[in-house]
């Protein structure tokens, strides 16, 4: 599938072994629970907002919704974060925001997830309220106070600043760095 596939990455066999041995070392049962996921990322003891966000990320990675992330789900998540095309990532972000799963994002959902992300990342140039207003102002074309997946993707793809902001705010590569280097917190 093009020159891109020849890059060493999560798709290559040695890389797969690397992730597999790391995954099995961190998670001998082969099933990563939410508790283990937080421990692996050093994210225990977050405030309720932060906890909510990590649970949403976990639930989206848990493709079969059995309450665990298995190795295949883990690799799918890594592939998305490292090599996903921008529209795949935007679909993923949309899923993350759409807390009630009704196919639309409203202001409350966007506000709560952005607040949760701020609780984890800590750095941002604008408040969650400002962020939410700006997003809706820019991409809610029919002004109904809700964003559909189409509105979200085309709106973000159309606006470079917004794309940049969303990509930076929701960048999961820090999460991946932890997984790759296997941070162990001494308690």
Architecture overview:
The protein is mainly alpha-helical and 187 residues long. It has a single domain, classed as Recoverin, domain 1 (Orthogonal Bundle). The protein has ten helices and four strands, in the order αβααβααβααβααα. Helix 3 crosses helix 6, helix 5 packs across helix 8 and helix 6 packs across helix 7. Keywords: Calcium, Lipoprotein, Metal-binding, Myristate, Repeat. GO terms for molecular function: calcium ion binding; calcium sensitive guanylate cyclase activator activity. This is GUC1C protein. It comes from Heliornis fulica (sungrebe).
Throw out a few tags for this protein.
single chain; 187 residues; mainly alpha; Recoverin, domain 1; two-stranded antiparallel ribbon; 10 helices; 62% helix; disordered C terminus
Backbone shape: globular
CATH structural class: Mainly Alpha
Q: Please estimate the helix content.
A: 55-70%
Corresponding CATH superfamily:
EF-hand
Pick out the low-confidence regions.
1-9, 183-187
CATH architecture: Orthogonal Bundle
Q: What is the terminal-to-terminal distance? A: 46 Å
Mean pLDDT: 79
Integer-rounded radius of gyration: 17 Å
Total count of strands: 4
SS element count, helices: 10
CATH topology type? Recoverin, domain 1
Keywords: Calcium, Lipoprotein, Metal-binding, Myristate, Repeat
Protein name: GUC1C protein
Domain EF-hand: 49-84, 85-120, 127-162
GO molecular function: calcium ion binding; calcium sensitive guanylate cyclase activator activity
